[in-house]
From TrEMBL:
The protein's annotated pathway: Metabolic intermediate biosynthesis; chorismate biosynthesis; chorismate from D-erythrose 4-phosphate and phosphoenolpyruvate: step 5/7
Pfam families, sorted: SKI
Cofactor: Mg(2+)
Entry-linked PROSITE patterns: SHIKIMATE_KINASE (PS01128)
Cofactor-binding details, from the entry: Binds 1 Mg(2+) ion per subunit.
Family, similarity comment: Belongs to the shikimate kinase family.
Native organism: Geomobilimonas luticola
Keyword Membrane: no
Keywords: Amino-acid biosynthesis, Aromatic amino acid biosynthesis, ATP-binding, Cytoplasm, Kinase, Magnesium, Metal-binding, Nucleotide-binding, Transferase
Name under which the protein is recorded: Shikimate kinase
EC assignment: 2.7.1.71
Main location per the UniProt record: cytoplasm
Length: 172
């Protein structure tokens, strides 16, 4: 399947550990689109890790950088963008995401997310409490924002290639 010139950007949203980066990279390869990771842009600009940004400057400062860098992508074309799990919370960000292109929300059950993130340490929102209850509470709070997508795709029990196939079929 080749890239369609009339297609806008593809934006991946979803909770931490739903596979946005792995799926985004593979999808970009398959479409011959550029892959951009919003968290990576933030880290590159700040010159420190996400944990360090949260510790040194706080979550509000992180959200401000996130919103600014997201806005700076307006005008991009042929891009697959994976966003951080909290990028959809701000209404202004959701407006920018929709303006940028097709919003695809990746979904996974809290139990699966806990498994996938058990060895990860650069998730400041889970560093102090990486429990099923904490993950469930965050997901519940964000659910209306994740639901504001063009399509939602369950990722549990599927391979990255399988998820990408599903997205490509849906885009046709
Ligand atoms: C966050 C998710 C992270 C990162 C930051 C905050 C969140 O991105 O942006 O730790 O609020 O859910 P990933 O979803 O890529 O882990």
């Amino acid at each position: 399947i080749s890239a369609r010139s009339d297609m806008g950007n593809i934006i991946l949203t979803g909770f931490m550990g739903t596979g946005k980066s792995s799926v985004g990279k593979e999808l970009a390869l398959r479409l011959n689109y550029r892959y951009i990771d919003l968290d990576a842009l933030i880290v590159a600009e700040a010159g420190i890790s996400i944990n360090e940004i949260f510790t040194r400057d706080g979550e509000t400062a992180f959200r401000a950088i996130e919103a600014r860098l997201l806005s700076s992508l307006k005008g991009e074309e042929n891009m697959v963008l994976s966003t951080g799990g909290g990028a959809v919370i701000a209404g202004e960000n959701r407006r920018v995401l929709r303006e940028l292109g097709m919003v695809i929300n990746l979904v996974a059950p809290a139990e699966e997310i806990l498994l996938r993130l058990r060895h990860e340490h650069d998730r400041p929102l889970l560093n102090n409490d990486k429990s099923l209850e904490r993950i469930r509470a965050l997901i519940a709070h964000r659910e209306p924002f994740y639901a504001d997508a063009d399509v939602r795709i369950e990722t549990c029990g599927k391979t990255v290639a399988g998820i990408v196939d599903e997205i490509l079929i849906w885009l046709k």
